[in-house]
Amino acid sequence: MKENKIPSPLVSLLPVFSLIVMLFATIRTFGSDALSGGSQVCLLVATAICVLVGMAGYRRPWRDFELAITNNIAGVGTALIILLIIGALSGAWMLSGVVPTLIYYGVQVIHPHYFLVSTCLICAIVSVMTGSSWTTIATIGIALMGIGKAQGFGEGWIAGAIISGAYFGDKVSPLSDTTILASSVTDTPLFTHIRYLMITTVPSMLITLVIFTVAGLSHEAADTGHIADYTRILAEKFHISGWLLLVPLATAVLIARRVPSIITLFLSTLLAAVFALFFQPDLLCEVVGQESGGAETLFRGCMNMLFGSTSLQTGHVEINELVATRGMSGMMDTIWLIICAMCFGGAMTAGGMLGSITSVFVRFTRKRTGLVASTVASGLFLNLSTADQYISIILTGNMFKNIYQANGYENRLLSRTTEDAVTVTSPLIPWNTCGMTQATILSVPTITYLPYSFFNLISPLMSIAVAAVGYRIKKTLQN
Predict the structure, then answer these.
(1) pLDDT tens, 338-357?
(2) Are 424 and 392 in contact, with CB atoms under 8 Å apart?
(3) d(CA 206, CA 128)
(4) 7 φ/ψ sector (left φ>0, alpha ψ -120 to 50, else beta)
(5) Residue among 89, 75, 6, 131 at smallest CA distance from 387
(6) Of 157, 222, 313, 338, whose CB count within 10 A is highest?
(7) What percent of the chain has pLDDT over 70?
(8) Cβ neighbours around 25 below 10 Å, total
(9) Phi and psi torsions of 130, nearest 5°
(10) pTM for the full predicted model
């Protein structure tokens, strides 16, 4: 056996098929608890299979695998820190009364018939402003989940509207790291890339808005008594005040001033914690099992709000679940899963298996539609196998760059197709970093919201459809 020989596509698919089979069995056995350890074990076993095949069959040195895995984990270090801060933020925004206040006023302002389309538009606007789907979903997304439940919508519909809007902004905002990455990898000017994205993104969003509008108009509005109960219980349990809206307002100001995401989320969490001390001292005492207390009890309650799980008794089971928080500790299963996913992606890359599999897609690049469809399929597969959208964008762009140039197609076609294929599909994959994160933040399984994330499902198909029509696809780059 020659040293460093590339595995065949069939052999390269062995770890992927093994992972799929193990995940199917694990999810079937453990259900929603699969993310608490079973899925992580599956990823590590699949990683071991990659290493075994690479070392025993193709003489790949262990050092190559170790380096690739280490680099992958290092690459998501910032994302892991953001996850921890988001865990603290979700606890602070809930216990301080910020989210309950937004829900209290929101159910009275947003008409149920237009809730889904309004949710999608609100998240799209916020995401364009922030450039971050994660920040959008972790802040306004949580409040919209509460409003939607109060109005009687299923959690899949609500989460689908939130994610559709959030990833519209993540895809086209000049502040988005994925937008910047896709344009940089393909050597496409940023705003040229964004303008060209609109050709596929705007129709996808319009179709999505139509679907949510029709679904909202056909929705049977929740009993007004049910909504009245929601607002009454929230007002009884929390100190509802317009002053609490200063927290999301200050967050919006930080976003508008383009303060880095980690700093924005941290300052927002800190401000919410201060407001919790002033507006909800009784609740801080309750979460540590005290009816009242002094400075030490409030300090314990505040710290527990940020790092631990909290639960409040409101007399209403559904609202109890809504206002329960998990803090930073609630993010640990997701962080553990991300680290294991990075191990699998690194092993697949180091073993030459990703390159072998994606080479299959390259065979269908002779015609324009086949070229774009192959790029979409490759991007989606990389999202599935590497479990990280950043790695997928880099690999897709680098792999197809020379092919597009050899066929005389412009770089902006590759940059657009890469985003259509990778950015929007990442939250639809349960073991992808985005899928794990959004499911954790919204407390909705990925499989539950996947059928309702219409923008994310339509975008890759729209990319292929536009390529088939040939609209504004030129052999020379036009700004």
Answers:
(1) 788 788 888 888 888 877 87
(2) no
(3) 16
(4) beta
(5) 75
(6) 338
(7) 92
(8) 13
(9) -90, -30
(10) 0.70
